[in-house]
Structure formats: C-alpha cells, structure tokens
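Complex 255.
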Amino acid sequence: MRRPLVMGNWKMNGRRREAQALIAAVAAEAATFPGVDVAVCPPYVYLGVAADGLSRCPAIAWGAQDVSAYGDGAYTGEISAGMARDMGCEFAIIGHSERRTLFGESDGVVAQKFARALAAGVTPVLCVGETAAERDGGHTREVVLRQIGAVFASCGTGAFDRAVIAYEPVWAIGTGRAASPDEAQAVHREIRNAVAQRNPTAAVGLRILYGGSVKAQNARELFARDDIDGGLIGGASLVAADFVGICRAACPDLA
Ligand code: PGA
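Predicted structure with 2-phosphoglycolic acid bound:
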C-alpha cells in the first residue's frame, strides 16, 4: 500500500512572518492527519524558516520548488540540489508547468534537474501535464508520456525508484477547475503503466500526486481513486485550515 503524500507548493508568495505562522499552524494539527506524509515547499529564502519550525515535527517534511540543472559553481542566482539537501529538503519539485512555460524549461533541462536532485539525495517530484490546447487536441497521453520518457532517457531505468510524479494538467492549475476524479484517475493509470513498462517494481510503489485546483472539498474524492496517491497543492496550501483539511482528506482510514 502506498502511503499518501500531500505537498504544499507556496510558489512565490508570503513573507517570513507569514511563513512562520503558516508552518506553526500546520504543525499544530499534525496529529489530525495520521498515516499521511506531508511536506511544504516555501520559497528558497524561507527554507530556514521551515527547518526551524519543523525540526521537532517529524510528521511534516519540507522541500524546494526547484533546483538548478548545474552543480555548485559559477551560476549566479541559482540554488543547487546539494544546497537544498543541506537545508534539510526531503523533496524538490521538478519541472512545474510554470517553470516549463514561463521560464522555458525544456524536457531536457527538467531531466537534468531531476538527475541533480537524485544525486543529492533529494526526492524529485516530477510535474507533468498537458495544456488546454493539447488536451482539446487529444494529446494528453502523448505529452505526459513524452515528459516522463525524457527522464527515463537521461536517468535510466531506475529513475523512478525513489521519486514522485505529480500529474498537473496546466488548465487546472490555479483556475478553480480541477480535473474530475475519473479524468485524473485515467491519466494516473496511464502514467503508472508507462513506468511499469520500463520498471514494474518502481511502478507499484510510485506515488503519483494530482495537482490543479485541489481544495478540501474535492480532495477526498480524488484521493480515493486507485492511482491517485495524494496531491500537490498550490493556492489552498497558503491557508492553514484549507491545507490541513486536504491533508485530513488523504488519511487512509477515510479513503
Ligand atoms: P493550484 O496549484 O492548487 O493553485 O491549482 C497547483 C500547483 O501549481 O502545484
């Protein structure tokens, strides 16, 4: 049985005080979501706030929203996977659609970042997903499998032995229009099958998160599906009560 995982992606929001308050509020409720792995991903500059606020809260991990495709060195403005690990990050979000579309990250760059995270001992959370136009054109499967294939091509068959995939349809991110549980489940199944073709063992244990307008109200129905192992939460992760509600919806005894 895969342990559910709920991750909060704060994106570029908040200030130090808000980060402290949000982390304290979620940590205070940790006992109310037993059996769920939970992580928060603040902006890099507040990773220390997460480390301070969560060091005595083993139930909640923290992660980075990205890592550099390069190792340490002369790359002004970049943050290496090794630095993220050094700040206690257990996870790093890799290839979020905002990175792909706004910052021009190709499948190849995303694969390099994924490899850097793995090498540093940080679990990569690979984001995949189609745009509205790709979906309307019937290309969802092809896009998602291409994004995963690029990581297999560069990291080898063992790429997903210790990794997470997040299916985030671009049209659902921040729009208030989540994929239906049936739609999401169908794509998650395709993803698991695609990984199984290369590595059957990894596919069984692989956690595939759904992301895109997850709220406390729709989380339970999404997480109840066979191949939906939790969520990557944007907007709702900025409000403690909403995020905690989603974490509770992932509790195995409620599924
Ligand atoms: P959202 O964002 O929950 O605000 O739709 C999800 C994400 O971008 O990870």
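The domain at 5-254 is CATH 3.20.20.70 (TIM Barrel).
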